[in-house]
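Re: the request from the purification team.
They wanted to know what the chain is likely to look like in 3D before they choose a buffer screen. I agreed to run a prediction and write the result into the notebook, where they can find it.
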Amino acid sequence: MPAHGVTSIRLARLFVVAVMLALVGEPVVLIPTATLKVAATAPMNAAAASEFRIFDHNACANKCNDGIEQRVTDAIISSIHNSNPPLTYVTLQEMCEDQIRGHPYGIAARTRDLGYNWEFLPTGPTCEGGDAYGLAVGYRGYASEILSYTLPNPGNHEPRGMLCVALKDSGSIGCNVHINNDRDKNRAKQIAYVRQAAIDGVEGKPPLFAYGTAIIAGDFNAHPEEAAMDPMYESMHREVFGINNRANKPSTHGSGRIDYVFAVDMRGIGTASGQVANSLFSDHKIIRGIIRQ
């Protein structure tokens, strides 16, 4: 069944969700649980300072929700509509394409009035509803360039990629990545490849920092203290919970942290801050991050 087809059962579910939200008196289903702020060296060019707001979430929209549950899209749309100031980038992993592009109930159609556009990168098997499965990037404004990357897959596991959108006239590029959890062959090589894309350039593309503030968010399937994360912590200028904070907190999945928002900018180090929030429909928590340059 396509994600945008609304059955009587689904309408009943939406009614239940609406009643629940009405009872608690809150329009948002995301509950802030922790806030950590990180101070860093001021940018070299303070006059050119910019602020980028990121919403990152492994929504587990297929595995946890059968790929057709509209409750996932409703929750994400509610968060976008209630973000003030507006979000610069929304990076979503494990999404189904119909949940993004389906009409009239997809996220793209229901956030267009706020000025958001969306890109989708198929990466793996199809969702339960038969549509593509992968990564989505939402952005407020217009893209000057869209880049997609294929991550190394020596272990021959589910294909993984990275999707990036350079936002016109913003001096920034926002990227969404989902690293494989194969600790033996894929994970470390894929993380190193992401670092290489950011600093050196890969696949004939310029390095991500050439676009200005390069933001890389997503599910890395590795804890901060693990050696697999060394390329990111040693090369990036910022991470919303501290570029020098390799403690396994705050948790974003189970009792540990495997979801991140990194940034690199050759114009200066800048500052970053972040908070995590619970999700009613995923086994991952949400990250809301702010990158200032």
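For the purification team: The chain is about 20% helix and 30% strand.
Please add any questions underneath this entry.
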